[in-house]
Give the backbone structure.
Amino acid sequence: MPSTRTPAAGLADGERRRDAALELLADRRAAVVRAGQRALLLHLFDAGTATADDVRAAVELPQGIGPRCYGAVPMALVDAGIIRAAGYTPTRRPEGHARPITLWELADRGAALAWLADHAELPAVEQPTLY
């Protein structure tokens, strides 16, 4: 029996699921996500563009924490209009097999400076491995 679901409905459902998963990661891994957000913005000030590879290089994951939490790093910054996608570039990590990843740029330098001033590093909290 053919599906009555439209491609647009499937895309919308996929985006909702992605956003829910990223919100959960941002909640459960708040200290790592905050460190990643700060690292991303600081790299953008220095280099003009940044990727998840730059965040991974700057923020060491605590023992037992999986790298999926890096996916939540740009979410709030994009929603706040602080950064925006500037295209795609191949990942520099060999295990990423040169797949395309988002290239970020500052959308609002003043808002980025204000965000950094208002969002200090969070203390690391030991949590059980969930992801």
In short: The two ends are 36 Å apart (CA to CA). The chain has one domain: 9-118. The mean pLDDT is 84.
